[in-house]
Amino acid sequence: MSWTGFAAVFVAFFLTHSVPVRPLIKSRLVALLGQTGFGVAYSALSLSMLALLIWSAGEAPYVPLWSQMAWQRHAAHLGMFAVCLILALSIARPNPFSFGGARNDRFDPAGPGLIRWTRHPILLALALWASVHVLPNGDLAHVILFAVLGCFALIGRALIDRRTKGRLGRETWIEIDRRRRNAPLIHAPASWTGLGLRLLAGVSVYAALLWAHPFIIGVPAL
Questions:
Q1: In angstroms, rounded to a whole number, what is the distance separating the alpha carbons of residues 210 and 222?
Q2: Structure pTM?
Q3: Which whole number is the average pLDDT over 6-15?
Q4: What is each CA distance from 82 to 56, 58, 71, 85, 148, in whole angstroms?
Q5: I want to staple 213 with a disulfide (CB 3.0 to 4.6 A). Which of 4, 10, 186, 221 is the partner?
């Protein structure tokens, strides 16, 4: 694949992530597919485009920048373990600040869980995933890939904040955020069983990713 093809996949990736969530387009898609159907379709599309983007980085011209070392792989392993736990603790949880919150009317700013630390845990996981993958992938195409995705995650926080302020109303958003930031950094979960299951899911996903990495990405993670 040429650099032009790599750039074209990047453009397609951003279009498929930005266009469907524009208010007018999203409302029509939700009316057609339903809220759950839209969530499933958008998630499937996002994962498919991410897989295509990663594949295209591997097919782009190889320009080495630095050699891989053992500590870089170990750092990636630890970082990905954190990513899996963050995702397990945040997906399908009430979060009025995010684009993917579920049952947001049940959000308790006095006991926000992981959201006490960040309004956008999924974007934090994406930024961390990109950061730790830069280390063992020292060629130009992969550095561009992970650097752009990491910046995309960081910039996305401001864009989503702007949209949620418009949806909730600026004063309401500010008040909920103030109460979230005033909550204890660590507090008892609403359900210890639920917390245990989520942590177990995170560990299981991490183990599955280690096993599946050579089949999906083409190189072993260990």
A1: 7
A2: 0.83
A3: 88
A4: 26, 25, 17, 5, 21
A5: 221
pLDDT value for 202: 93
**Where in the chain are the domains?**
1-61, 62-216
How far, in Å, CA of 92 to CA of 102, rounded?
Answer: 5
Determine the Cα–Cα distance for residues 210 and 212; give it in Å rounded to an integer: 6
Q: Give the Cα separation of 118 and 9 in Å (integer).
A: 30
Please give the angle made by the CA atoms of 23, 29 and 32, to the nearest 5 degrees: 140
Following DSSP, what letter does each residue of 136-182 receive, concatenated? Answer: T--BHHHHHHHHHHHHHHHHHHHHHHHHHHHHH-HHHHHHHHHHHHH
Which pLDDT value is given to residue 72?
A: 92
118: which 2 tokens?
A: 């960040």
Question: Could you tell me if 170 and 113 are in contact, meaning their C-beta atoms sit under 8 angstroms apart?
Answer: no
